[in-house]
Amino acid sequence: MADKLPQSGQAAAGRRRETGVHIGLAVIKGTAGSLFGSSVLLSDAFRSASDACSSYAAQASGKEHSRRSGDNVQRMGREHTFAYVFSIFLIVIGLQMAVLALNRMMEPLDGYPQLPAAFVIPICLALRLLFVSGPIPGWEWAVSLTAAAGAAGAWAGGESGWTWMTYLDPAASVLIGAFIVYKGYLLFLGTGKKKEPAPADHSGLAEDMTEIIQRVDGVVTVEAVQPHMSGGRISAEIVISVNPRISVLEGADIGRRVKQLVLKRFMHIHDVKICVEPYNPGYPYKSNHDPNQEHMPTLLQ
């Protein structure tokens, strides 16, 4: 195949793609907000930037479970430092956006967003669905619809002469600014947070999860299963290996199916992080994923 699983960095491929998509959405929203005179689009651009930083922090966290050492530890420290600084930056920016929007609402508005501003958010949602695997969280739908409704309502009010409706754009900007502050606060608390080992009554959880995961089509081996207790909730971090000859997207799909199966079978687990690595035993092997592979007898059999 054209796209092969890389021998290093495969575990973070999905997170890197997600981070890049959120950065692109932030640029689109920020540019559109400046061109079409919508403060809510500018605020939502910073919200997409916070999503990008969250994805980046999750990518850095996943690297802790790769089998590397040495200078990777120093790189991890730099990545967490960046996430801490950026989370504080988001809190400041969210507060500033909310205060500026409130100040606009205290004075007569001299304009309102143009019509294209109302379509930017739906377009960005479509791009998010197209390029990022997995469903959109409910909170993201709510925030995006708030931004779209604020821009559309302000345009409709300006065109119809209902002045009070033009204040919907800065009002929605205030709400999104408050959400950015909340997002930055959660990112600050979550970055580099130490995880507690699972309690003794969950000692057999890893074995049960390993047995279930091994049944997923495309999983060659389960390298590690590590449950954690954090804040009274159980989360798990799983490392699986797959056929190195499949594409990156196929590997990501296997990881997605593993995550869905674990969350369905173990309902008390709150969150699951999957690291997908290429299988490298050092000799030719037979995969349980490729039905067209010839099964020739060997001396090992």
Layout of strands and helices, then pairs:
Blueprint: H1 13-36, H2 39-62, H3 71-105, H4 117-131, H5 138-160, H6 168-190, E1 196-197, H7 205-213, E2 219-230, E3 233-242, H8 248-265, E4 269-278
Parallel strand pairs: 3-4
Antiparallel strand pairs: 1-2, 2-3
Helix pairs in contact: 1-2, 1-4, 2-3, 2-5, 2-6, 3-6, 4-5, 5-6
If you compute it from the alpha carbons, what radius of gyration comes out, rounded to the nearest whole angstrom? 23 Å
* Strand numbers in spatial order across the main sheet: 1-2-3-4
Count of DSSP H/I helices: 8
Shape: elongated
- Average pLDDT confidence is 76
Helix content: 55-70%
Structural class: alpha+beta
Q: Provide the succession of SSEs.
A: HHHHHHEHEEHE
Main sheet overview:
4 strands, mixed
What is the oligomer described by this structure? single chain
Explain how this protein is built.
Helix 2 packs antiparallel against helix 3. The chain contains eight helices and four strands; from the N terminus they run H-H-H-H-H-H-E-H-E-E-H-E. The N terminus and C terminus are likely disordered. Strands 1-2-3-4 form a four-stranded mixed β-sheet, with helices on one face.
Outline:
The protein is of the alpha+beta class. Helix content is 57%, strand content 11%.
List key phrases describing it.
301 residues, alpha+beta, 4-stranded mixed sheet, 8 helices, 11% strand
